[in-house]
Input
Amino acid sequence: MRTIDDRLAALLAAAVFSASPLLLCGCASTAPAPRAVARGAAAPLDQRFASEPAPTPRFPDPERGRKLRAAAAGVQALARRAAERERLPALALGVVIDEELAIQAVLGVRDAAAGGAVDEHTRFRIGSVTKPLTAAAILRLRDEGRLSIDAPAARYLPALTGVVYPTRDARQITVRDLLTHSSGLPRLGVFPPASTSRDVTEREILATLDGFGLESAPGTATSYSNLGYSLLGLIVARAAGVPYRRYMSDAVLGPLGMRDAAWDPSQVPPGALASPHARGVDGVDDGAVAPIQPWRLGASEATAGLYASLADMGRFVGFELAAWPARDAPEAGALRRSTVRESHLMARNGSAFPAGGGDDGPGLGWHVREDCDLGHVVFHNGLIDGFSASVTLLPQRGVGVVALANVAGADLESLNADVLGQLAATGAMEARVAPPSPPVRRAAQAVASVIGRARTGALDRRLRPGWFPEAHLASLRGALRDAGARVGACALDGSAVVESATAARFGLRCERGALSLAVRVDTSPDARITSLSVEEQTGAIGREAPGPRDRPARCR
Output
C-alpha cells in the first residue's frame, strides 16, 4: 500500500459572552478532575446517577431541520461542479441531518468505459475511512472486557516484542498508541506491497516486525501509520477469537445497518460496484481517467479495505452523530454512546478531552479539530488506488457530510467544506444549547427574589454553609439591596447562557432596568450556591458571535 493517503481537511469555532461588571461576589472554584473510567477486563464499577439529570441540550431554532434541507439544490449544484472540475466518473455525496441521510447527489457512471448508472447503493471503496470502523471494533472489544487499549499491544500480538525502540526509557507500544498514530511506527510496513494479483498475508506482516525500528518513542509524537491499523485488524481477530471480517460483520457493520458493505469485489452483486479509476494510466497526465484493477489488501485490509455505499455511510454517520449529546435515553447500536463520544475527542497522554480553539489532533480512529468557525469537527479522509472518500462530522450541530468517488486523488475534502459552507449560509447551523439545570435555575431564582426586597432569607438558604465569610455576606446583602434600590424588583426573563451543569448566566428583567446574573452551585444533592455575580445588562443575554478578544488565541 504505497500510496494510501489521508489528507486530513482543515475546518472549524467558539462563542463567549461578556458584560461590564456591577458587582462580583463569591469564591473562585476549580473544575472537577475527570472521573476515572475502568477499562479492559476489570469488572465494571458500580455507578450512581443523578435523580435530577441535567437537561438535554437542544437546537435553538425550531425551523432548523427545514432550513437545512432547503439547501439541497445548492448542495447538489456544488456536487455537479466538483464532479465536472475533478472529472470524476462517479460521485456520491450525502448530507446527514439528525441521523437521516437528508440530501443526496449521486452523479456519473460506475465505469468510464462501460458506463452503468450510479445510485445510493453503488459500492465505492472508502480507503482509510475504514480506520474509524476498525477503531470501533477495538473499542467494542474494550467495552466487552476482551482487551485493554492501555495494555501493551504485544499482549495480543507477541510479534511486536521484536520491534526496536529508539531509547532505553521508551515504554512499550499500547493499543491506544496504535489507535492514535502515536506508536512510533512509520506510515508503511516493509512487507510486500498490496497488488492486484495476490493478498498480503498475516505471516508476511508479522514476520517483518522482528528488528523493525520505531521512528520515535511511543506516546511522544504523532505520525500517521497505515501499518499500525493493519496491526489493529490482527488484534481484533486475536481478541475476538474469530477472523477480523467476521467480527466486523457481526459486531460493527451488521448492527450499524451497513447492509451493502463488502471486503471483496466478488461479494458485490453485478451492476452494484463502482470501478476504480486513475489519471495518467498511459503515462500522459492530461486529466483523463481510465479504469484500473483494484488492490487486494488481504491481512492489511483493516487500514483501508472496506467497500460501502452512500446509503451505508449515511447510516454510519447518523450513528456517530446520534451519540451526542449525553443523555438518559436507552442505548442502542454497535457501541455505547459514551464510547463514540470518546472516539470523537482528541486523545493525548492516555485520555480524551475536548480540543481548544484551533487545535487539531487524533481521536480514536478519527481526526479532531476545534475549528474557529464550525466548532467541534470530527473527520477522516481516504485515498487508495482508484477511490477517494471523505467524511466530516459536526457533532454539536447534528450534521455530517460524506463524499465518495471512484478515482484516486479527488479533492473531496474541499467539496465537504463547501457543502458545510452552503449549510451554514442558511443560518440554521447553530450548535445545540443546553438549558440551565434545575439546581442552577433554582439558585438564580433565589438571587432574583431578594433584589429590591428587604429580606434576604430566600438567598441565605441557598448559599453553601461556611463558603462565604460573614464580612463577605454583609457586603453581598448590601450590594444586592443597593442594586434593588436602583432597578427595583427583578425576575428571570427566560434568557440564559449555560457554562456547565453547575453554572449559567441569566437575564433579569427589573422594574427600572435589567441585570445579568451569573451563578454557580455545588454538586451536593441539595445544591447550594458557591459563586454569584450580578452585572449591569447592556444587551440581550444570548449566544452572540464572539468578538476578537473572546476568541481563543489560535482563532484570532
